[in-house]
Automatic annotation (TrEMBL):
Residues 1-141 form the UspA domain. It comes from Rhodovibrio salinarum. Signal peptide: none annotated. GO terms for cellular component: cytoplasm. The lineage of its organism: Bacteria, Pseudomonadati, Pseudomonadota, Alphaproteobacteria, Rhodospirillales. Pfam families: Usp. This is Universal stress protein.
Length: 146
């Protein structure tokens, strides 16, 4: 049913991936799908902020994220599931949408948490992806006690 599944993860925040990675792996195993595991490095390109970092800082942090992503998939994706590692650079929801298009994914599987007041004002990434994606989106919530 699904050939290519995009799973965005924040490597520093387990809640951003725990439930979604488990579900995406189940789907990949059931359908023989390929997982596209994505992490996003924020853009520090604003002139005011960028001047405080070395000129090659973003390249270094993207490469570090790529290495951490490989370690992550080794630890959380079982052997036999084909994985493509993706590192985006910019706003999280923009990169999720862009990478889903580029990789021609037919499903985006991502975690979400219980909305807080600040989420209603700013909008969580999952809500933005659902609103703007041309692909199917599965939003996986953690268990109520998890």
């Amino acid at each position: 049913m699904y050939k290519d599944i995009l799973v965005p993860v924040d490597l520093a925040e387990e809640n951003s991936w725990k439930a979604a990675v488990s579900r995406a792996v189940e789907l990949a195993q059931a359908f023989g799908s390929r997982l596209h595991v994505l992490t996003v490095v924020p853009d520090f390109g604003a002139t005011m902020v960028a001047q405080y970092f070395p000129h090659d800082y973003e390249q270094k942090i993207v490469e570090e994220a790529r290495q951490r992503l490989h370690t992550f998939t080794r630890d959380h994706v079982p052997a036999g599931v084909e994985v493509q590692h993706l590192v985006g650079h910019g706003r999280v929801y923009d990169e999720i949408l862009r990478m889903a298009e580029e990789a021609d994914c037919d499903l985006i599987c991502m975690a979400s948490h219980r909305p807080e007041l600040r989420d209603y004002l700013l909008g969580p990434n999952a809500a933005r992806v659902v609103r703007h994606s041309k692909r199917s989106v599965l939003v996986v919530r953690d268990a109520p006690n998890g």
